[in-house]
Amino acid sequence: MSENLLKKYKIKAKKSLGQNFLVNEKIVEEISNQLDINDKNIIEVWPGYWALTEKLLEKNPKSLRLIELDNDMIDILNDRIWNNNLNIWDIDFKIKNIDVLKYFPEFKEYFVIANIPYYITSPILKHFLYDVENKPKKMLILMQKDVGDKIVKWQLKEKDITKKNKNKTSVLSLFIAKKAFVKEVLFVWKQNFVPAPKVESSVLLFENHGLYDDIDDKEFLDFIKKWFSEPRKKLVKNLLKNWLNKEKLLKTFEVLNLWENTRAEELTLEKWIEFINEYKKA
Predict the structure, then answer these.
(1) Burial of residue 119 (number of CB atoms within 10 Å: 0-12, 13-18, 19+)
(2) Could you tell me if 141 and 125 are in contact, meaning their C-beta atoms sit under 8 angstroms apart?
(3) What predicted TM-score, i.e. pTM, was given to this entire model?
């Protein structure tokens, strides 16, 4: 069905938008089964020609918002509606022709489902986890696998880091862990896309936990950006370079039993939260 639609509408992926169309019906079905969306508010980002949307509509969501930037895709969507290929009449349904980073959901509770261009993965995650007022309860995101691996590698459970441990934190893994639990729910071979990307993909499930809502988001993001300005350098040098108070900084290291040669990538989220709290008290 998916490949037939590509041929019918003469759909060609646009490199400028990072488009790769998922055409394996079985995987599309598996993705749609990851969340119970019955009577839920759903936001689907970059739906393309509706391969996944069709499956979502079958599961009776309360509402469905499609966020699509490509005008050609919207023309195809409207044509499919006009020709009664899809039943949208029983739900609150709208197509939003807008950049997703400029879209702010009107719902208090909702899920986000997306097959997003790899080049904009981090900005989209930051938008929904930090920028919008009402955060999604869950997100189901198909993304580049190696990026997904970096995200799921570090979660809220404390890790024992040694020089022999190759696992390292990053700005991406930390800013996500502050907001959500994450797990990989599906691996997707690159051959399942048209055109096939150069890398494999995975589907990640994000669940908002709210455990660190007492830590100011802007303050947290500012800190970790300073800490990771040069991740291979000693943490003390990075922080002093970014104008933090030396006396308070050294006192914080002492209280938390951190060595001065510690590097930013060696600390877990819990340690960074402790660090922020102790530094403010010092």
Answers:
(1) exposed
(2) yes
(3) 0.88
